[in-house]
Amino acid sequence: MDAFYASVEQRDFPQYRGKPLVVGGTPEGRGVVATASYEARSFGVRSAMPSKKAQQLCPYAIFVYPRFDVYKQVSRQIREIFSRYTDLIEPLSLDEAYLDVTEDKLNIGSAITIAEEIKKAIKEELNLTASAGVSINKFVAKIASDMNKPDGLTFIGPSKIEKFMEKLPVEKFHGVGKVTAERMKMQGIRKGSDLKKLSEERLMVLFGKSGKFFYNIVRGIDNRAVKPDRETKSISSEDTFSYDLDKGSELYEHVLRITQSAFKRLNQYRLYGRTLTVKVKFADFKQITRSISFDHPISNENEAYLSAKTLIENADFEGKLVRLIGVGFSNFHEPKMRNRVEEQKELF
């Protein structure tokens, strides 16, 4: 979907149309940008950017609070449109999914035609636009979907994949973040053609297990199947406060609220986790995470809150004020007997 949250807001509220709109954060500089309209993006505003920077780049931007319940409902409507064509749908987020249309339900026989029909249905039924990438595997299709936004459709056929990948800057490779891209550039790897010159062994020396992945994808090789049932690894909720808080009663009121929000999501997914993790981000943007694991599922909100509260009480804040708290649950399917406090850095 194109600027999904912002597009839904502009669809539902005419006063936002044609104006730079930021979903998430505040004009006072609290929080981060969830997404921005294309009018705001023209000023350099991007997702995950601190709202303070977004406000500096675009002083006239309108900031609105996310309406996730609405976005989830729209996402379900989009998935219903997808399901008319295939049952092999792998959601990546509320606004993105892989579809395998090798055998489409309507016997259309053309992935490009299917993409065109899906885009048309989304526009006519939901008054939103989507961009599609069509190719022979997930990696190339993902890259193609980002090429001609908004409202784009890009097809990269089998005979053109290797030439396309050779010309692609490494930072455009899906899964290559800023840190890895910089590491690649330090090795003289700036485009796919540079990456392609290195052996699989050399890439694994430089980038570990990811080296094998890079060796394959620069050649357009990606054998991952579209998996309709992606296992949920973790569920969490977090909030950035309107002003920084110390370790006092007001902070724990927010911890209770955030825990209840995360627990509500657990119930929606009919899951119970054995591990609870809290994330604390301080006013200087440094953050810590702490977790505790049990030999039984955490089955009620009170137990979850008391566990989160204990983790925060025992954490050393070093006198810093807090700008964000997150609470998450994981370890849904592992029956391991653990009951210890530990750091867990990749839950959120």
Description:
With 348 residues, the protein is of the alpha+beta class. It folds into four domains: 4-64, MutS, DNA mismatch repair protein, domain I; 68-158, Reverse transcriptase/Diguanylate cyclase domain (Alpha-Beta Plaits), CATH 3.30.70; 161-217, 5' to 3' exonuclease, C-terminal subdomain (DNA polymerase, domain 1, Orthogonal Bundle), CATH 1.10.150.20; 234-342, DNA polymerase, Y-family, little finger domain (Dna Ligase, domain 1, 2-Layer Sandwich), CATH 3.30.1490. Helices cover 38% and strands 18% of the residues. The chain has 13 helices and twelve strands. The protein has helices at 4-12, 38-41, 51-57, 68-83, 111-126, 138-145, 161-167, 178-186, 192-196, 200-207, 210-217, 249-269, 301-314, and strands spanning 21-23, 35-36, 62-64, 89-93, 96-99, 132-134, 153-155, 234-245, 275-282, 287-293, 322-330, 341-342. α10 (200-207) packs across α11 (210-217) and α12 crosses α13. The protein is globular and about 65 Å long. Mean pLDDT is 88; it is low at 334-348. It is an enzyme of class 2 (transferase). Its main location: cytoplasm. Its EC number is 2.7.7.7. Its cofactor is Mg(2+).
Please give a quick description of this structure.
The protein is α+β, with helices and mostly antiparallel strands.
